[in-house]
Specification:
heterodimer; A: 249 residues; Rossmann fold; two-stranded antiparallel sheet; 15 strands; 26% helix; B: 322 residues; alpha/beta; 5-stranded parallel sheet; binds flavin-adenine dinucleotide; binds adenosine monophosphate
């Protein structure tokens, strides 16, 4: 069984975001780039499954659509334990374009399970995993918070509004992962970092594909008015404010 | 021309979020001089279906087929597409909840319809069709242009409001072409959090962080939540420690919510936590550290010991209401 994990390369979650060129571009100065948190969890889970000798997972591959500047993030995924990596050498303009590039490459391989994250923490598209599964004509299960393998059968828990559903599926399958799929993301150790240098990172050129959306420009949220402080000896005042000023209770 | 809105239900009942979605779709239909068509899959009785018309649905299409009992992303996408084609829908609207996130991107790829995900308002005009959405987990907003003739939108919860606009609806049944073989995922077990106010639906939320010190102290939050009729939430370390169930964790990696009021007790206000609650209309912070970052985000703050402040607040509320 072969597993593929789609990874996006995003600013570290503590980044202060700024824009340049009339608010049309992200100011990348000083940004630390990391593996998208959900992809990191999915990768962690995939590696756990491979190590569990009850399963027959042969390999865990990571794939990314992006320029050469995202290679450190890909190397990090290799250092954490992925066996090999594929980079589609193109600017990831929108979710449709990215999914089309991924589909193009995936069709030339035979992955049984494809992981994507529920959303990228940069543009919050929540789109690539679903689009990809549609393009590949594969089933997909979204908001997956637990993933088990038993005799090459999947047992999945997905979150629904107000509960959970336990599921099975035919393979191949696209799994859109959220929190819970692994608890802590695995971090690379020294040996992993050394080994990552020798692992294959295959660069493929993009296919001719269109995008369907353009990011026109960005805006920062309006500054909040300063917090109104209430004396802890007088919580009654807070009740008044909530009732009469905010009118939320 | 039509706007198609996929109206999810829970055991035959719609929620306020469904009515918000229909309100949005019907305002969009007004702009486009189009019909609002609501699609409901599964068993819903007629009285409930008619509620959709109170918010502007001109036509309600129901699909009832045994093999659609559970959400199968491929099957549901196919049904929505078949209905969209029959109705000549150019814009498909879904909720930005787990179901909408599962279906909208598939529908987008299938119908070559640009996806505007988690949009929070109407476009200013239909051409160019530019929608606004949150990016960088709430640290910024983006204007996104959808370039194709057909479009799929998912609406951010609690971002638009509910508008009554009563119509006399046409209710029709639709028989999709869908064989059992096309359904490749199976649900084997369902677990529902019964009788619990859902965090994602709640208008009022009471939340605790590591500053609550131990799970025993949750009584104090629980009392306040009961007094308010609020749902409970928590920060990530609290759920990681197992003090509270995972489904209560809010933040970038947990639930993203948009209640009217969010009361945060013993929560420092880390950026990843704020990512889940920044859309709250009002935030109240209770923290014993006056420099805690949560006060930068909060509308109202109390610097004090949560163990003391919470019971007093519950008591003050009780008095104010009696
Ligand atoms: C990739 C990533 C994703 C993350 N995602 C999330 C997420 O989704 N959600 C999330 O919550 N976190 C998330 N985190 C963790 C986040 O960075 C913070 O560590 C976490 O939010 C802190 O939780 P806390 O505020 O409960 O605890 P702390 O930061 O420990 O804060 C406790 C607060 O309680 C106050 N306090 C102590 N005693 C009292 C008292 N008696 N009365 C009143 N106040 C008191 C303290 O002053 C302090 O401000 C994420 C981190 C990373 C790296
Ligand atoms: N450039 C990319 N390369 C590979 N996978 C990606 C890329 N962008 C997004 N993904 C995958 O799609 C998921 C959802 O991303 P998005 O639709 O951008 O919110 C991510 O968690 C990744 O698994």
């Amino acid at each position: 069984m072969k597993i593929l994990v789609c990874i996006s390369n995003v600013p570290d979650t503590t980044t202060k975001v700024r824009f340049t060129n009339d608010n049309t571009q992200l100011d990348t100065n000083g940004i630390q780039w990391v593996i998208n948190p959900w992809d990191e969890l999915a990768l962690t889970r995939a590696l756990q499954l491979k190590e569990d000798k009850n399963n027959s997972v042969e390999s865990v591959t990571v794939i990314h659509v992006g320029g050469k500047e995202s290679e450190p993030t890909i190397r990090k995924a290799l250092a954490i334990g992925a066996d090999d990596a594929i980079r589609v050498n193109a600017e990831p303009t929108d979710a449709y374009f990215v999914a089309s590039q991924l589909a193009e490459v995936i069709q030339q391989h035979d992955f049984d399970i494809i992981f994507a994250g529920i959303e990228s923490s940069d543009y919050n598209g929540a789109a690539v995993g679903g689009m990809l599964s549609e393009m590949l004509g594969m089933p997909s299960i979204s908001a997956v918070s637990s993933f088990e393998l038993e005799n090459d059968q999947v047992r999945i828990i997905r979150e629904i509004d107000g509960g959970k559903e336990t599921m099975t599926s035919q393979l191949p399958l696209v799994v859109v992962a959220q929190k819970g799929i692994a608890i802590e993301p695995r971090i690379a150790n020294m040996r992993g970092i050394m080994m990552a240098r020798k692992k294959p990172l295959n660069v493929v050129e993009p296919a001719e594909k269109d995008s369907m959306v353009d990011f026109v420009d960005f805006e920062l949220p309006q500054a909040k008015p300063p917090c109104k402080m209430v004396d802890p000896e007088n919580v009654q005042e807070l009740v008044d404010l909530l009732q009469n000023e905010a009118k939320v209770i | 021309m039509a706007i198609l809105v996929y109206t999810e239900h829970w055991d035959g009942q719609f929620k306020k979020s469904t009515f918000e979605l229909v309100s949005y779709a019907s305002k969009l239909a007004e702009m486009a001089d189009a019909q609002t068509v609501a699609l409901s899959i599964g068993q819903v009785d007629e009285d409930n279906l008619r509620q959709l018309a109170d918010y502007g649905a001109d036509k309600i299409i129901t699909v009832n087929q045994a093999n659609l009992k559970y959400l199968d992303n491929q099957a549901y996408t196919s049904v929505i597409q078949q209905v969209a084609d029959q109705e000549g829908a150019d814009i498909m609207v879904l909720a930005h909840n787990n179901t909408g996130k599962a279906l909208a991107p598939r529908l987008s790829a299938r119908m070559q319809a640009a996806l505007g995900s988690e949009v929070n308002q109407l476009p200013a005009e239909l051409d160019p069709f530019v929608v606004n959405k949150k990016v960088f987990s709430g640290k910024a907003f983006a204007n996104v242009k959808l370039k194709t003739d057909k479009k799929v939108l998912t609406l951010a919860q609690n971002s638009f409001g509910i508008y009554e606009n009563t119509q006399e609806p046409i209710i029709e049944n639709f028989e999709p072409t869908l064989s059992d073989e096309q359904i490749k995922t199976q649900v084997t077990d369902v677990e529902k959090h019964r009788d619990k106010l859902l965090l994602t639906d709640a208008e009022l939320v009471v939340s605790g962080g590591r500053g609550m010190k131990s799970p025993e102290n949750w009584d104090k939050l629980n009392d306040l939540a009961n007094e308010l009729g609020a749902a409970l939430a928590c920060s990530r370390p609290v759920s990681d420690e197992g003090w509270r169930p995972h489904e209560e964790h809010t933040g970038q990696t947990g639930k993203i919510i948009a209640p009217d009021l969010y009361i945060a007790a013993g929560i420092s206000g880390a950026i990843q936590h704020i990512a889940g609650v920044s859309a709250a209309k009002y935030i109240v912070a209770i923290n014993n550290d006056p420099d805690a970052p949560i006060f930068e985000m909060a509308d109202y703050g109390i610097v004090g010991d949560a163990m003391q402040v919470l019971p007093e607040l519950t008591e003050a509320l009780r008095k104010a209401r009696s």
